[in-house]
Specification:
Blueprint lengths: L4 E2 L3 E2 L18 H9 L16 H11 L17 H13 L7 H8 L5 H4 L1 H9 L3
Antiparallel strand pairs: 1-2
Helix pairs in contact: 1-2, 3-4
């Protein structure tokens, strides 16, 4: 099965929710991984850099270095520019870490006339804020 889903929110593409396995032969960024490990008790870590700078590789290394830490992972492609598809996948990625998360946001996302930025995001952010 490709993933849970229905006509309202689309099919969840399972492969988009898996951390890539670090490839052999790449330059290891031990100091950057150590910085990420040091800050891993924060609720959110944002890694921002130019395309092709190795963000995916760095995050995959971090995941491999922190086996006890759960990662919510979402790989994006141009089709994820659709707000319903994007937020459906975000909710599902977060559920890999906190299974009960996003029920209210998902219901709002399915409702006719929903504007995700106005209706879904605040619900999801509030749930995340109350999650340990």
């Amino acid at each position: 099965m490709a993933g849970r889903g229905n006509d309202d929110r689309g099919i969840i593409v399972e492969t988009k929710l898996h951390v890539p396995v670090p490839r052999r032969g790449l330059v290891h960024r031990d100091s950057l991984v150590a910085s990420l490990v040091e800050g891993s008790r924060r609720k959110l870590t944002l890694v921002s850099a130019a395309a092709g700078s190795g963000k995916t590789t760095l995050l995959a290394e971090w995941d491999a270095a922190e086996e006890a830490l759960a990662f919510a992972w979402l790989s994006l492609d141009p089709g994820d520019n659709d707000p319903v598809r994007f937020w459906s996948h975000v909710i599902e990625a977060l559920r890999r870490v906190v299974p009960e998360l996003g029920q209210g946001a998902e219901m709002a996302l399915r409702a006719p006339g929903t504007i995700p930025a106005d209706d879904v995001v605040p619900l999801l952010v509030n749930e995340l804020a109350s999650t340990p």
